[in-house]
Amino acid sequence: CLADPRMTVEQAQARLLQRLPNGATPLAAGGGGGSYRVTRDETDARRERMVAGILARAGILTGAEAQAARQDNPAAHQPLHVLAEQAL
What we know:
The chain is mostly helical. It is about 50% helix and about 0% strand.
């Protein structure tokens, strides 16, 4: 398909579908409809790291909680004005 630049999308799809095993169909053609769910995005994760880092620095989190909040958390060591800028 890639070797023939004159091939249309429909022709490429037909050729590729011929190579599927007998009875196989593309996932979108099954009618069952896939499903997906976003549980949390990177913004939420970053905000949670910031909050945990600030709470650990303020002494609100102690012991293992504070250690976990500081570990691999750049927000635990950044100046507060930098965290404020990133939160906007």
